[in-house]
Structures are given as structure tokens and as C-alpha cells.
Amino acid sequence: MRNCPKCKRPQFAEKKRYCHYCGTEITPARQVKVVRNEWRPEPSQPPDKKRARALIAGVALGVVLIVTVIVSVSRSGGGTSTETGSGPGTETTTGGYPATGTTTVQYAAPATSYPTETKDPSDPATVVTNYYAAVDRHDYRAAWDLGGSNLSKSYATFTKGYATTESETLTIVGTSGNTVNIDLSAVQSDGTIRYYEGSYTVSSGKIIHGTLRLTSTSG
User: Fold this and answer.
1) DSSP assignment of the chain
2) Which of 146, 149, 154, 187 could form a disulfide with 131 if both were Cys (CB 3.0 to 4.6 A apart)?
3) pTM
4) Chain center to CA of 213
């Protein structure tokens, strides 16, 4: 309902342009269109490209690590060997030289391998070791040159002394200066074992004196 702007009387006819009482022109009321705001969900945003790249990189790195572990495990399964020395030419050293060490050298006849000489072949313990290695492989001439000539009256007597020996086990108990103390066990051709103890004096890479005493026999 509108009122006349002049006489202020109400106008019951909404569509009349003139006042019913005084005839004054009435400006038609403006129509206001009411628009309702309807909520609409915002369009979904695309995923962050940086996060997507980081995720892809992380997955790729994980795959590479898994493959690397599998390859490492498969390779570690082979190529491993454990050797336990026994028999001809076996040498076990505890503590090494000089006198405080104990070296056990075992040779079996016929010998197929022998301990290699040290860098200093004139070392007393090395000379004694090489001497018994030569005897065990029946290289009596080499043993004679290493000092057997100072231990026997003749070469024939020297070789005859080892005629019944099958194998020997030499234990170097210790050294004192040029003197080497040993224990020796010798397996004979009849199956018995003879046990000896003794010492050798070495000078200039050669045995110059030696004593060997039989302590017991078994078998």
C-alpha cells in the first residue's frame, strides 16, 4: 500500500498513477527483485604438483632400495669358502717369534707342500723349521746344508737316522738368542710314536749344534 506524497492518504489501488483524493501523480513503486543466495560447493582444486612429484620420487627410491638389498643378499650367498689347514705343510702360530711364541709345524710323508721361508731365512726358528721340512720331504741334501753336517759324522749316517720315520710334528717352544727350543713327535713306520725334546743353536742361517733327547714312546 502506498501513500499520496501530497495528501498522505493511503492509496488502495497499487497500479493507479494519480491520487484518488487529490489527483496528485504518484510515482509507481519500484519493484525489487529478491535474489536468494544458494550455496554451491567450490570446484575441487587439482592436487599440488610438488607433492605429487615428491610422492612419486619417494616410491621410486623405495623400489631402488629394495632391489639393491635383494641383489646384495643374492651375491653374498656365494664365493665364501672356509679352509681348515691340516696335514702336509700345516703351520699354526700363536704369538709368533721371538721366544714367547709357540709355533707348531706338522708334516706328513710324502709331503706335497711345505711352509714358505720367511723374509729372513737366517732367523733361528726359520732355519730349524726349514731343516725339518727338508727332512720330511726326503730332501736330505738340503737338510744337510742347513746344518745336518754339524749333527752327524757322515751324510750316510745322517740319512739312515730318518729311515723309519713316517712323519713328524715339530713344536718350537721358544727361542733365546740363537738357540731354539723344540718338542718333536715322530711317527715310525711300525705305527709307534716317539716323543723328543731338544734345542738347536743357529748361526749365519745354519744349525751349528743340536741336542735331541727321547722322552717317551707310545703305540
Assistant:
1) -EE-TTT--EE--TT-SB-TTT--B-PPPPP---------PPPPPPPPHHHHHHHHHHHHHHHHHHHHHHHHHHHHTSS-------STTEEEEES-SSTT-EEEEEE-SSPS--PPP-S-TT-HHHHHHHHHHHHHTT-HHHHHHTTGGGTSSSHHHHHHTTTTEEEEEEEEEEEETTEEEEEEEEEETTS-EEEEEEEEEEETTEEEEEEEEEEEEE-
2) 146
3) 0.47
4) 47
The CATH class given to the 95-218 domain equals alpha beta
**Domain locations along the chain:** 1-29, 95-218
Nearest to 126 by CA among 183, 202, 56: 202
- C-alpha 170/C-alpha 179 separation (Å) is 15
Q: Check whether 179 has a pLDDT greater than 60.
A: yes
Q: What is the CA radius of gyration of the chain?
A: 55
Cα four-point dihedral sign 107, 113, 118, 121: positive
Residues 6+ apart with CB under 8 A from 71: none
| Of 199, 139, 201, 190, the residue nearest 171 (C-alpha) | 199
The fraction of the chain above a pLDDT of 70, given in percent, is 62
